[in-house]
Amino acid sequence: MRGLLLLLVGLATYAAMLIVSQWVIAGGIESEPAGILIALSPMLPAAFICGVIIRSIRRLDEMQRKLQFEALALSFAGTALITFGYGFLEGAGFPKLSMFAVWPLMAAIWFVGVMIGRLRFK
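Above: the chain sequence. Below: its structure as C-alpha cells.
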C-alpha cells in the first residue's frame, strides 16, 4: 500500500511539474541553460517513480519477479525491433516519429508480456 501511495505522489508531482514547465517554456525563456533545466525538470519525479517501481519489484516473490523479468525482456526486445524497423522505414520516406512514441510502445508490449506470463504460469 505504501508503494502505491509513493507512486501516486510521484505521478502527481510529475504532472504538476510537467504543466508548470510547459507553461514557463510557452512564456519564453531568454537563457538557453535555464530553458533546458526547466524542460527537463519533470524528469526528477520520473526518476523517483522509477525508484518506487524498482523497490516494488524487489519486494515481489520469485515467481512474480520471473514474470516481470520476462515481460520486460519481451518489451525491450520488441521495442528495439519495432523502432529499428521503423527507423529503416523513415529512410524510405515514412514520417518521422517523436521519441514520445517509444514509451507507450514499450508499455504496451510489457502489458502483453505480463498477460502471456500470467497465462503461462497459471
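Residues 56 and 74 are 20 Å apart (CA to CA).
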